[in-house]
Amino acid sequence: MRRTATVLTVMLCAVPLLAGCGDDDTGSSTTSESETKTVEITFADGSVTPNGERVEVEAGQPVELVVKSDEPGELHVHTTKEEELPYGAGTTRLTLNLEQPGVVDVESHDPKAVIVQLEVS
């Protein structure tokens, strides 16, 4: 009888500890890599916003550039392999997948501006 009481006490003490561990695992399995980071870019009357802002993203996290423009144009993304991403008048959604840590400039040549710097960690 004494042994049964000891085993039950140990089990009752272990249950909250195990439940706590389960909660921590659930929280750590949700990574920001699966959450898309959205950056809104607006071209209007010859100017662009944002203008040089730095945005932090995780390596592997999808980045969606939502470009709203009064005329078509092209973004230049300075990664290991430079990308040129055309956009149309109106709203265009462009997705980037950045795997390598570092700072990636997204710029325009008309108007000449660094629009955003994506700090990949």
Describe the structure.
The protein has one helix at 2-29, and strands at residues 37-44, 47-49, 53-57, 62-69, 73-78, 83-87, 90-97, 102-109, 112-120. The chain is of the alpha+beta class. It folds into two domains: 1-30; 32-120, Cupredoxins -  blue copper proteins (Immunoglobulin-like, Sandwich), CATH 2.60.40. It starts with a helix and ends with a strand.
List keywords for this structure.
about 120 residues, Immunoglobulin-like, 5-stranded mixed β-sheet, 4-stranded mixed β-sheet, 9 strands, 2 domains
Write the SSE topology.
Layout: H1 2-29, E1 37-44, E2 47-49, E3 53-57, E4 62-69, E5 73-78, E6 83-87, E7 90-97, E8 102-109, E9 112-120
Parallel strand pairs: 1-4, 3-9
Antiparallel strand pairs: 1-2, 4-7, 5-6, 5-8, 8-9
Strand order of the largest sheet: 3-9-8-5-6
Structure annotation, total helices: 1
Number of strands: 9
Structural class: alpha+beta
CATH topology of the largest domain: Immunoglobulin-like
Radius of gyration: 24 Å
Question: Could you say which overall geometry the principal axes of the C-alpha atoms support?
Answer: globular
Strand content: over 45%
N-C termini distance:
57 Å
Sketch the topology as an H/E string, one letter per element: HEEEEEEEEE
Mean pLDDT equals: 81
* Biggest sheet descriptor: 5 strands, mixed
What percent of residues adopt helix (DSSP H or I)? 10-25%
